[in-house]
Amino acid sequence: MKFIPTTLLLSSALLLGTSLSSLAQNTPQPDTPNAAAPAAQPKLPDPLSAPAAQAEKPVDPSHVMAVVDGKDVTAGDLDAMANDIDPGLARLPDQQRRITVLKIYVDMKTLSDSALKDGLDKTPEYEKRMAIMRDNVLQQLYFKNSIVDKITDDDVKARYEKEIAGLPKEQEVRARHILVKTKKEAEDIIKSLNKGAKFDDLAKAKSSEKSAATTGGDVGYFSRGQMVKPFEDAAFALKVGEYTKTPVESPFGWHVIKVEDRREKQPPAFADVKDGIRNMIARERYVKLIGELRGKMDVKYPDENVAKLMQQPDSDTGDLPGEQSDEEDQ
């Protein structure tokens, strides 16, 4: 966990610049033939396993949590620090989060006071790093004031309507499957289905997929590109109520598949993607703003190679001011 300068309240949980449909894709479930594995999640203390997860009484932001070097540190101060230290701390219960931040702050002050006694604030390295930090904080504040704070709820809603209107019409199916290790097992299951056995009952009894015991092999709705190709092709070739008459092989084993429903793919709910859309708008406005302001800067490149490289188009997937990349967070 790192202490960083003041950051913006822009979440980077969603990949900025991705399409609206990709923002709402469900995380693949284990033991189902999804084409991709879920991304690793940040490892933070589990709020549900912590003693502080029990009901807490609200704490006045002015409540003094500590006195450090003669200065009060309030609950509100710690709440403000938490996002700068790690936005993921917001997942913790209030008291646990504040105590975590307070410990970090006390340790930081202990070391910084020792550094002052050693005169490190008078060194050239300190001056250079403080200048960089100053510019970093100022650019974040300017970004927040000029862009983030000016994005309205109406802006986000209008962009959502525009995006869903442009989504291609796409079919999705809802399917069940029974996963077994051998082709012979799958053929025997198909014989049982031909004799009138219920698909979900067989899935609960025969499938090697652990979740089938409760789901009856239901994998929910999916569109093309979300499952491994043999599974996908077989499912989309079936009509509602039909099941595969021959076993389907995939890297996971042998499947018997039944289609329960077909429908036009539903657009993602506004509530599920509004934060991502807000970030898309912020990125677009940032690119426009920085392009306008760069033209006013007095910048020279004595090295011709550097000058050529600086003329190359910018990537539109980098971090916005105040964001940290996933690699930096690890």
Automatic annotation (TrEMBL):
Q: Name one GO molecular function term.
A: peptidyl-prolyl cis-trans isomerase activity
The leader peptide range reads: 1-24
EC?
Answer: 5.2.1.8
User: Region annotation Disordered: residue ranges?
Assistant: 24-62, 304-330
Record SUPFAM superfamilies: FKBP-like, Triger factor/SurA peptide-binding domain-like
One Pfam family assigned to this protein is Rotamase_3
Q: Does the keyword Isomerase apply?
A: yes
Top-level EC class: isomerase
Reaction catalysed by this chain?
[protein]-peptidylproline (omega=180) = [protein]-peptidylproline (omega=0)
Keyword vocabulary terms for this entry: Isomerase, Rotamase, Signal
The chain positions of domain PpiC read 170-261
Family label: Belongs to the PpiC/parvulin rotamase family.
Full protein name = Parvulin-like PPIase
Organism, scientific name: Bartonella choladocola
